[in-house]
Design goal:
The complex is a heterodimer.
Chain A: E1 9-18, E2 23-30, H1 33-38, E3 46-51, E4 55-60, E5 71-76, H2 80-86, E6 93-100, E7 113-119, H3 123-136, E8 142-148, H4 157-166, E9 172-178, H5 183-191, E10 196-198, E11 215-220, H6 223-235, E12 243-246, E13 262-265, E14 268-271, E15 278-280, H7 281-286
Parallel strand pairs in A: 7-8, 7-11, 8-9, 9-10, 11-12
Antiparallel strand pairs in A: 1-2, 1-6, 2-5, 3-4, 3-6, 12-15, 13-14
Chain B: E1 2-7, H1 11-18, E2 23-30, E3 33-38, E4 64-71, E5 74-76, E6 84-89, H2 91-104, H3 111-118, E7 120-125, H4 135-138, E8 149-154, E9 157-162, H5 165-173, H6 183-199, H7 209-215, H8 220-228, H9 234-238, E10 245-251, E11 256-263, H10 284-295, E12 298-299, E13 303-304, H11 311-314, H12 322-331
Parallel strand pairs in B: 2-6, 6-7, 7-8
Antiparallel strand pairs in B: 1-9, 2-3, 4-5, 4-11, 8-9, 10-11, 12-13
Helix pairs in contact in B: 8-10
The chains are: A alpha/beta, B alpha+beta.
The structure holds flavin-adenine dinucleotide, iron/sulfur cluster (2 copies) and FE2/S2 (inorganic) cluster (FES).
Chain lengths: ~290, ~325
């Protein structure tokens, strides 16, 4: 591989799938098989996507490392560059560099229960954890608590509904909260009355008993969500060291050079791109501005 | 460390010998401002300068530079580096480069910075503080490493400290220009350093500074200064340890594009802006405070992110004084 960390590697878009009106799922494969072979990642890591001549942006890897040979990115149309990639088609070539960041400590959590708490687009990095945990079979039980705006906004809807139906056989319980009522939601709620409700993601904690000594929480969602979810977890006496969250900041380089993702004060400075994007609640307590 | 003496009458020959290594850059006076410029004779150099406006970081991390060039749909890299001699760096600037090294040479190293750094000879020179300097408080007023040669002024020449193998080579190849250091030279060196130590007018007390600043997060002093600050970002541009950059792709013609980076400033509103318009540092207060926290961050292995060069004070159009802000913030803790 190149010595130059800013160089990106050609990847072909194998498939583009509409997930919602704003998010698309891009399935990619590196053109050079050797690059693809060497590209190893852990759930929670991200890549920098390079649209040559237009710019770069960071995106979490949403596929699981247990499923080799391809890479999936769930990209929301948010602005200039993401709008551009939304116009791209199967067969088009983009650049990828990475993987970057620390990712979730999957080995450390083996044998435990995982509580995945996702809000909106936060589902993307947690999907990597979800399938890694299910495929590897090394975790006792997996809860996925997913808060979404409306039925139409549910990311990976087929997978979510599949897990609502058959998840228990894979040690996985999925719970869904939606905010905007629609016939489809009511239909879902009727089918899974104990697991689908109208409300926000914290409502899904109601009635759930987690063995806090055997559980880890992994959170990803919009900035406002963290405070409420963390309060819910702390109320249940989950140790701050077992609460992991993945954060977003402005990123340019992804490797600790450009300074955009720096947070903190005179006693603790952290780079979200290389010290994170996954942090524990202890980190948040000692580094101001993290959440 | 090895010490030798360069007598005044050999200075010119010594300077000429440096040209064999690479292009020589040294502080030059232009109007009332000093800057590092290409020089061809010692007479062009302002040996007694206080500080240049742009620090020597501009030679390694350029104000604007292409990092990749797009040709036929592929990025091409150009890690070119010319051999250079940076002559006459003050101790604080040498410390500034060491702080930048920690960022840019940390794995994965920035190849552009790295190749320029490797091809550059650093020659330090002693200085007298002026009213803006506070490097003594930060321990950056004396460089123990980070240079190839360091020249200390003596009444009849220079006491030279040799700080690297390359420095040894230069001294070896030009052996006839140097002499052994005498007891008199030593006495003069000691006298100069004592005089210099007493000349500092500004001081930043260190005791518990990092913690107290952190505790004073909500101090009204931040707000007071944020209102005076023009958010021009000058302080970032001139700071030897500020290294934020922004990246942009630019088309040269229909077939060619460049990926450029340029200095960025955390005072700019879009520094913390992410997609969808969410800003992690939306107000000028947030951004002002952020710069001070970033500069005052204490890394146990490398010290502060500020070397006390005084540039941000001298070149701030709003006359905001770095030390004064920190002292007032600390003082506001009751
Ligand atoms: C670790 C991480 C993981 C992420 N994971 C995902 C994910 O899985 N899915 C997802 O959809 N999103 C993800 N994001 C967010 C994603 O990076 C942004 O949505 C994306 O950068 C938006 O780019 P844009 O150009 O479309 O948006 P814009 O809003 O146009 O631009 C985004 C930023 O770039 C700046 N900018 C725009 N144009 C220029 C220009 N010409 N020159 C300089 N600056 C410019 C803007 O000021 C803004 O700060 C992630 C972000 C991070 C940090
Ligand atoms: S140079 Fe002075 S006025 Fe300009 S941004 Fe810095 S502190 Fe503010
Ligand atoms: S913060 Fe000011 S005094 Fe400190 S290194 Fe930067 S420019 Fe120099
Ligand atoms: S993204 Fe550049 S330093 Fe983190």
């Amino acid at each position: 591989m190149s010595e130059n960390p800013y160089q990106t590697y050609d990847a072909r878009i194998l498939e583009v799938k509409d997930l919602t009106s704003r998010e698309k799922l891009f399935t990619l494969r590196f053109l050079d098989p050797e690059v693809g072979e060497k590209f190893e990642f852990r759930p929670g890591q991200f890549v920098i996507v390079d649209i040559r001549g237009f710019g770069e942006f960071p995106i979490s890897i949403c596929s699981s490392p247990t499923r080799r040979g391809y890479l999936q990115l769930c990209i929301r149309k948010a602005g200039r560059m993401t709008k551009f990639i939304h116009k791209m088609k199967e067969g088009d070539i983009i650049g990828i560099r990475g993987p970057y960041g620390n990712g979730f400590p999957m080995e450390e959590m083996e044998g435990s229960n995982l509580i995945l708490v996702a809000g909106g687009l936060g589902m993307a990095p947690l999907r990597s954890v979800l399938w890694y945990a299910i495929d590897s079979g090394k975790y006792e039980h997996i809860w996925l608590l997913y808060g979404t705006k409306a039925y139409e906004d549910i990311l990976f809807r087929d997978e979510i509904i599949h897990l609502l139906k058959h998840g228990e056989a894979m040690n996985c319980s999925v719970k869904l909260a939606y905010e905007v009522e629609s016939p489809s939601c009511i239909y879902l709620e009727r089918g899974f009355s104990d697991r689908v409700c109208r409300g926000v993601v914290t409502d899904l904690f109601r009635g759930e008993e987690f063995d806090v000594n055997k559980a880890y929480a992994l959170i990803c969602g919009p900035p406002v969500m963290y405070k409420f979810v963390i309060r819910e977890l702390l109320d249940r006496k989950l140790s701050p060291g077992r609460i992991y969250m993945t954060l977003e900041r402005r990123m340019r380089c992804g490797i600790g050079k450009c300074g955009h993702c720096i947070v903190g004060t005179s006693t603790s400075i952290k780079y979200v791109c290389k010290d994170g994007p996954v942090f524990t609640y202890w980190d948040a307590l000692s580094t101001r501005g993290l959440i | 460390m090895r010490y030798i003496k360069l007598p005044s009458e050999n200075f010119e020959k010594f300077f000429k010998s440096l040209e064999a290594w690479g292009t020589v850059y040294a502080p030059v006076k232009k109007g009332s401002i000093y800057s590092f410029q290409e020089v061809h004779s010692p007479s062009e150099i302002a040996l007694d300068y206080n500080r240049t406006m742009l620090p020597p970081k501009k030679f390694f991390f350029r104000p604007k530079e292409a990092i990749l060039r797009l040709k036929n749909g592929r990025w091409e890299e150009e890690v070119e580096a010319e051999p250079m001699v940076l002559f006459g760096l003050h101790s604080c600037d040498i410390h500034g480069l060491k702080i930048l090294d920690k960022v840019y040479l940390d794995e994965p190293a920035d190849p552009y910075y790295k190749s320029r750094r490797e091809k550059t000879l650093i020659i330090g020179i002693s200085c007298m503080p002026d009213e803006y300097c506070f490097c003594k408080s930060l321990g950056t007023h004396f460089a123990m490493d980070g240079f190839d040669l360091f020249l200390h002024e003596l009444p009849d020449g220079w006491l030279v400290r040799i700080g690297s193998v390359r420095g040894h080579e230069i001294a070896w190849e030009n052996g006839e220009l140097f002499e052994e250091v005498t007891d008199e030279d030593l006495a003069n060196f000691k006298e100069f350093e004592e005089k210099r130590s007493k000349a500092f007018q500004k001081e930043l007390p260190q005791e518990g500074l990092a913690d107290m600043l952190d505790l004073a997060y909500n101090s009204p002093v931040w707000k007071k200064y944020a209102e005076i600050c023009l958010a021009c970002g000058n302080c970032n541009m001139v700071c030897p340890t500020c290294r934020c950059y922004e990246v942009c792709d630019r088309w040269v013609d229909a077939y060619k594009a460049v990926r450029e980076r340029r200095y960025d400033s955390c005072f700019m509103e879009n520094h913390g802006l992410v997609a969808g318009g969410h800003n992690f540092r939306p107000t000028r207060l947030d951004r002002f405070r952020h710069r001070y926290y970033c500069k005052s961050y204490f890394d146990p292995s490398a010290g502060y992110n500020c070397v006390g060069c005084g540039r941000c004070d001298e070149f701030c159009p709003a006359k905001i004084e770095h030390v004064k802000v920190l002292e007032e913030v600390r003082g506001s803790l009751k």
